[in-house]
Amino acid sequence: MSLTATLTELLTPIVESAGFYLEEVLIANPGNHRILTCVVDGDKPLNLDEVTVVSRLISELLDESTIISDAFTLEVTSPGVDRPLTKRRHWEKNVSRVISMVMNDGTLLTARLTELRANDATFVENIKGRMKTHTVVLLDVERAQVQVEFSRKDEE
User: What is the pTM of this model?
Assistant: First the structure.
């Protein structure tokens, strides 16, 4: 088993016990130093206090473990906005956000996710002020990610 897989297996229970999800474990070796990055997410965006709590839990567990014997730097972070939507909970968390999608047939759609159901979702696309509703089967989405909105008129 790879070091990344071993660490993921070790760290997942402690992260989940704190009420979060371990999205990814990354290991970088710049020069002769090792950086361990744990990407942690929740049902809502994590705040700094929550990241600190998870960081301490992971650090304590790694201090007790012999999996990594040499010096390393631990980084705990939340997923960036550019992270792809790959799991159901990613979609659930982003209802009401604008999503850019590449469909399996290569077509593109950028629209607001307004409703999520078991197998499909409703999106509303703004085409020069005219709203067009789309029903998209989630299995037809090849790739999707949230788009950054700097100001939303409905949140003023």
Answer: 0.77
